[in-house]
Amino acid sequence: MNGTFGHHFLQNRYRFKGRLILKSPLRLSSGQASDETDAPLMRTRDKMPYIPGTSLRGAIRSELERILAGSPAEQGLKTCVLFSEDDSNKDCNKKVRDFQNERQRSGSGKDLTDEELAQFAESKLCDVCKLFGCTIFASRLIVEDAYPEQSEDQLKSKLIIRDGVGIDRDTGVACEGVKFDYEVMEPGPAFTFRMQVENVSGKDSLLVNLILALLRGGLYIGGKRAAGLGMIALDDSPKNKLSVSGFENPESLRQALSKREDPHKPLQWKDTPTC
After folding, report:
1. Are 224 and 27 in contact (CB under 8 A)?
2. 238 alpha-carbon distance from chain centroid
3. pTM tops 0.90, yes or no
4. Three-class SS of the chain
5. What is the rounded distance in angstroms from the CA atom of residue 11 to the CA atom of residue 28?
6. Which domains does the chain have, with CATH numbers?
7. How far is CA 213 from CA 8, 55, 235, in A?
8. What is d(CA 207, CA 131) in angstroms, rounded to the nearest whole number?
């Protein structure tokens, strides 16, 4: 799985496909009130509730960073920390700013070239930012929107409106005139899960395995997570086991394209990758 670091080549690609089960009520507000509620669920143009890929990807990254920050020696994987002053785990975006400021102080006010950015990314970015991306390096991991497998009619019984009130933090009681309501989806529905990662190295494989372990164990997304809302888990039953497809080297891609075939063939994902 090793290869040249960066985006200027295509060494390999892995596509993961499975299903997510909603384990606790989901609140993913659209941010716009409707006639029915102050905070309706996110919906597609066809009015179907769904889980945006950005929400799922953000929750995955946040939990991954927390785990790695708490166990920095975990198989040699490193993550950056937003408010750290330690150079070994300083926020990668701050590292970029510091590097650019240093160039300006040294009299070189020119913008960084693509080659300089690539060298900086390879040598200075943490493993999580190398996979998920940062301000100077695009992500190599894609998480698609997750859509419900059930029809609109089947979901109707799972959609309810809950009441909420604002709490005065000084008195600990409900504030007068601060009542609101919000829509949730009750547990049970299944959602599609699709994730793609390119140019996978040995450390990337370890990160992907951690992501899959997090999803199998259950991950919270959306609002009111502190109240236990929004737990989803990857369905790992024999009937719905996660499938993996793609290509593992450029030659496999070239041969498939020359034969006008789909290059994404079924693959066996290795739990213990070879670095």
Report:
1. yes
2. 25
3. no
4. CCCCCCCCCCCCEEEEEEEEEECCCECCECCCCCCCCCCCECECCCCCECECHHHHHHHHHHHHHHHHHHCCCHHHCCCCECCCCCCCCECHHHHHHHHHHHHHHCCCCCCCCHHHHHHHHHHHCCHHHHHHCECCECCCEEECCECECCCHHHHHCCEEEEEEEEECCCCCCEEEEEEEEEEEECCCCEEEEEEEEECCCHHHHHHHHHHHHHHHHCEECCCCHHHCCCEEEECCCHHHCCEEEEECCHHHHHHHHHCCCCCCEECCCCCCCCC
5. 36
6. 13-70+141-263 (3.30.70)
7. 30, 18, 12
8. 8
Task: Copy the structure tokens of residue 74.
Answer: 């975990």
The tokens of 79 are what? 């993550």
Closest CA to 61 of 204, 271, 203, 211: 211
Q: Which residues is 234 bridged to in the sheet?
A: 20
Phi, psi of 270 (to 5 degrees): -90, 125
pLDDT in single tens digits along all 275 residues of the chain: 555 677 888 999 999 999 999 999 999 987 777 767 878 889 999 989 999 999 999 999 999 999 998 876 556 888 987 665 565 567 888 888 887 787 777 766 566 677 877 888 888 899 999 999 988 889 999 999 999 999 988 999 999 998 865 555 666 555 666 677 889 999 999 999 999 999 998 899 999 999 999 999 999 999 888 889 999 999 989 999 999 999 999 999 999 999 999 999 999 997 644 43
Q: How far apart are CA 273 and CA 124, in angstroms?
A: 23
